[in-house]
Design a protein that fits this description.
The protein is of the alpha+beta class. Helices cover 47% and strands 14% of the residues.
Length: 700
Amino acid sequence: MSRKNSATPPAPDRLSSLLLEMGAEEIPARFLPPALTMLRDNTESILNEYLIAFSDLRTYATPRRLTALVKGIPSMQKERVKEVFGPSKKAAFDESGNPTRAAAGFAQSQGVEVADLVIRNKDKGEYVAAVIRQEGIAVKDLLPEVLRKLVLSLSFPKSMRWGSGSLRFVRPLHWLLVLLDGETIPFDIDGIRSGNITKGHRFLSPGSFAIKEIPSYVHLLENNYVVVDQDERRRRIETGIAALASSVEGKAPKDEELLETVTYLVEYPAPVLCEFPVDYLSLPRELLITVMKGHQKYFAVEGEDGKLKNYFIVISNTKDENAETIKAGAERVIKARFEDARFYYEEDIRKPLKERMEDLRRVTFHDRLGTLHDKTERIVALASYLAHRLCPDKVKVIERAAWLSKTDLITGAVGEFPELQGLMGRYYALNDGEGREVAEAILQQYLPAHSGDRLPETDEGAILSLSDKMDNIVSFFAIGLTPTGSEDPFALRRQALAVIAILMEKDYNITLEEMIRRAEEKACESRPALLSEVLAFFSQRMEPLLSSQNHDPDIIQSVIHFTSSIPLREIRERIYAIKRFTSDTEYAAFLLAMKRINNILPDTELPAVSRDLLHEDQEKILYSEILNIRPVLQKLLGEGKYYEALRLSSTLTRFINSFFDGVLVMDKRDEVKMNRFALLREIWSLTSHIADFSKLKESR
């Protein structure tokens, strides 16, 4: 008869929650999203470093606090296991497998039994090792060190030191709320002691209050007018904006940047609908939106037809009862801002853009690159050249747009609102009667302004954008102001990507080398290595751009060297052709034949092929086939029929294989050997106009 074990199993480890809130003076909204990411990453990293397990991690941010809430923390740190290597197996055990004095001494030094030693591979040999297990210690005892390290690990674009302390933080740190379940974890940083005290909204609930249990944290802050969860604040803002805009038969133009900013500007969002005099709607739409967004962080309202309405929405940081006060103040402020904007606009349109050309001579573009007038002259020269090359029927319009391209930079509106460069120039050009093509080109010269932004739609805009960006890149490279590491103060990387995107989108039949050489002719300074440096810079941008379009890495490598020498559209077409060719049955055999050629060819210079030195039938036939397909292949390449060119090249496969099977390349007669190398070089040179086949993979 068997008896069941009636012993009580050990109780499972009780899991705890940890709350850390860092309370500070108002943190700039732009700092909070990256701070949230850093807080999450650093919390996870430091907990892992200290072998503290957890099941969930959430981070919150408001203008006055950064919070980390960690759940599922055990009472004990994980057990530490480490292996310490000792002598080699040969030195630790004799031929009979008995431990030597070396093994016994090593085991004793590590506090383990000889029988517990294990054998591990290391440096191509076998060694004994001691597996040492260290019990974890109480998490509660570790937390003061962990939390101090976490707070000090946070960094910001700008930080400050205040009073007589040494702590640097984004803004003066006033309190540290730290709870493990309901128990305070005591530690201090620069005289700031942790506790269970937090603060509510600065104005609506300025007093301090205690958090006794972590589950009540979010609710108690809400009672004190703080919505600590940024996702919840965002939801309330979006819902409120939509409801208020709908009440006047409108909607708010989508603006993720502004939405994120106001989410981190307030702790207790309360949207308020406001109104402004309808006569301001006569000002340019973008000017009004920029005034509302840039200076006041207000949301514009538009009708279903896309036209602005004379309403705007403020996200206040107060209770709904204060809406009328907020409304009156916001309407007073926006009216004053709109008056300023109207003054600039009306003053600007009194002086046509063409009359501002001479004023450009008084504005420095860069101390080593001259004035804005000098910059304009370089743009005009390059734009005129590109127009004659690519759009000969639009030369006059492009030259006119180029001359006027920078004149709006010295207008009052752009001086006050720099983000409206180009856009205000478009309005002013239309007002001056310059014509829509010129006006649109002035606007589109700055496109694409950001990653994912739209490209110039017209040829006039594309040529002007290319000219402006290429002049910037070549000019700054010429004076040695090139991007280094993460530093790129003139956004040259972004502009290079823009140039590539425009050239590929518009299918312009021009090479980067030709454009760079032309820009270099007008550069204020030049030097011998400039062309190669700029070409390398573009090539470095081209590869990741193609990779982002999900092209095969080896196919990219096979054509990337063409970046400087052929129009970029042809690189794209080559990639498509090679991708298609890799699915053909002829691909694998052809690639293998090409790799055989590449592997045997010497790096030395070779003579031209001599028919008189072709002795074997296989080499004579191969040479004949090369001569036969060469003009056809060149014609196909000239017509951009790259897939057809690849198919034609693959007809050489059986002749190449026959050559290798029947001809000894390394002939004892030096002139015959070199002639056979030259024959193979003919094939490689002929096909290398399509791709570098040494970079391609044999199997897919």
